[in-house]
């Protein structure tokens, strides 16, 4: 599946418990069918010069752009976005059709 | 495969031909065995407020952190990094063990 990706790179405000936020995010993706897969990670290796203060990446994959658009306006996503916006210090979001240039063996 | 990801979010300098750069990147990942998969995309949907000027995301997946570390010091990666550094206006890099919270069906 190449599909369409919603990539969020974030730095959270001081004191934010990311585990609690992740529970909400996992609940969201489990309840919304158009989210085909959800992966996330916390940076452990990048140089501060390259990381620019960001700590977490979240990647959701959809079948196509239409499914992603449906997700954006889904009430559960709208609700979660409000929670998420309140705890981030900075963010970068990219939404793109995926080009799979080297496929897993 | 959950694995370990190397995520690069970039904005290129004006006039850079991203297609040429991608050819170099595809050659690199095809020649270096530890790169298990390589996906990329150009943002088409995000709001400028969220995109922050960034236009492209590149995601390489490795079996584990050790393979990623081997990639970093691989002569072909070192060589390509020099080329890449010369054409970017800004960059965010995150390197993280992947948590697969919702797996593709």
From TrEMBL, chains A, B:
**Highest rank taxon of the organism:** Eukaryota
Family matches, as SUPFAM superfamilies: Dimeric alpha+beta barrel
**InterPro entries hit by this protein:** Dabb, Dimeric_a/b-barrel, HS1/DABB1-like
Cite the Stress-response A/B barrel domain residue spans from the record.
Answer: 4-96
A Pfam family assignment: Dabb
- Assembly and binders: Homodimer.
Name the record gives this protein: Stress-response A/B barrel domain-containing protein
Q: Which organism is it from?
A: Actinidia chinensis var. chinensis
From the broadest rank down, the organism's phylogenetic lineage runs: Eukaryota, Viridiplantae, Streptophyta, Embryophyta, Tracheophyta
């Amino acid at each position: 599946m190449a599909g369409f990706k919603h990539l969020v790179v974030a730095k959270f405000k001081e004191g934010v418990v990311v585990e609690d936020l992740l529970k909400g995010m996992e609940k969201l993706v489990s309840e919304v069918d158009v989210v085909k897969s959800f992966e996330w990670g916390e940076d452990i290796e990048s140089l501060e010069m390259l990381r620019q203060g960001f700590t977490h990446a979240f990647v959701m994959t959809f079948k196509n752009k239409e499914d992603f658009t449906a997700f954006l306006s889904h009430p559960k996503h709208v609700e979660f976005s409000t929670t998420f916006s309140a705890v981030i210090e900075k963010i970068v979001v990219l939404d793109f059709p995926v080009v799979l240039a080297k496929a897993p063996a």
